[in-house]
Fold this protein.
Amino acid sequence: PSPGLVKRFHAPGGPGIRVDTHLYDDYRIPPNYDAMVAKVIAHGPDRATAIARMRVALSELVVEGVKTNTPLQQRNMVDQMFQVGGANIHYLERRLAQEKDAQKGRG
């Protein structure tokens, strides 16, 4: 997430999806802001259903004009360790380090 002008915002919806936010079109995120300007929550009868719903919701989410962590969350949803419930407090740190190492290997 970054400060700046949100040119366009569209929240996803559907069964099992909730969005907590104060964003709207032409909203300006100030330089001193709370980094959580929107939270997308998915639930379902089991983990696989909740993840499937979140994948659709993230594909429908539109936030134009500022950087978001949506691409990271989309990658998390297809990560095998995340899907099976192997995430813990170190999951994201390790995942980002793996992505960085993979990029170094390609470059």
Observations:
- The helical segments are 47-60, 70-78, 80-83, 91-106.
- Residues 4-106 form a domain with the D-amino Acid Aminotransferase; Chain A, domain 1 fold (CATH 3.30.470.20).
